């Protein structure tokens, strides 16, 4: 979004014309597109966010604090890492391993769905994508661990 703010500062007329054209391409009549663009441009906070969203496809809500993002990521890793361990506190044997793997895959899918809500993608596709990638990485880790056991 800082790129858009810089472009607005350096070339406000061009950026306003760009926004008008974006609204025209979305199907609004020229007069209405001009009015909408001028309304957006009158708000110095909303103008760069709107351009970033319209031109680059970046939702304005995603722009957040890096500290909050880091805390959310740490929490997600902590919860995601703990859930597959729950079956081992309850039992042992083959069923425990199956339960742990199932919980891990379901957790990965849930994280993908949550991610999809943030980035406005199809939640099923995103959930499957994260679950498959996570499962493949886990399988590779398991294979490497089996191939090179600790001494």
Write the layout of secondary structure elements.
Elements: H1 2-10, H2 12-25, H3 30-41, H4 46-56, H5 66-82, H6 86-90, H7 94-119, H8 123-147
Helix pairs in contact: 1-2, 1-4, 2-3, 7-8
Main beta-sheet strand count, sense and barrel state: none
Number of helices: 8
Domain unit count: 2
Radius of gyration: 23 Å
Q: Count all strands and give the number.
A: 0
Helix content: over 70%
Q: Which regions contain 5 or more consecutive residues with pLDDT less than 50?
A: none
Spatial separation of the terminal alpha carbons: 52 Å
Large-scale geometry: elongated
Report what the structure shows.
The chain has 151 residues and is mostly helical. The chain folds into two domains: 2-62, no CATH class; 66-147, no CATH class. The protein contains eight helices and no strands. It has helices at residues 2-10, 12-25, 30-41, 46-56, 66-82, 86-90, 94-119, 123-147. Helix 1 (2-10) packs across helix 2, helix 1 crosses helix 4 and helix 7 crosses helix 8. The radius of gyration is 23 Å and the shape is elongated. It starts with a helix and ends with a helix. The relative contact order is 0.07. The mean pLDDT is 84.
């Amino acid at each position: 979004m800082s790129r858009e703010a810089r472009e607005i500062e350096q070339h406000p007329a061009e950026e306003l014309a760009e926004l008008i054209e974006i609204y025209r391409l979305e199907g609004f009549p020229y007069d209405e597109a001009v009015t909408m663009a001028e309304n957006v441009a009158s708000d110095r906070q909303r103008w760069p966010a709107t351009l970033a969203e319209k031109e680059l496809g970046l939702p304005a809500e995603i722009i957040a604090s890096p500290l909050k993002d880091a805390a959310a990521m740490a929490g997600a890793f902590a919860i995601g890492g703990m859930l597959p361990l729950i079956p081992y506190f309850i039992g042992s044997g083959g069923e425990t391993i199956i339960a742990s793997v199932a919980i891990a895959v379901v957790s990965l899918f849930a994280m993908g769905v949550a991610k999809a809500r943030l980035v406005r993608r199809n939640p099923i596709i995103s959930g499957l994508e994260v679950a498959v990638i996570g499962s493949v990485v886990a399988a590779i880790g398991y294979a490497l661990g089996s191939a090179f056991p600790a001494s």
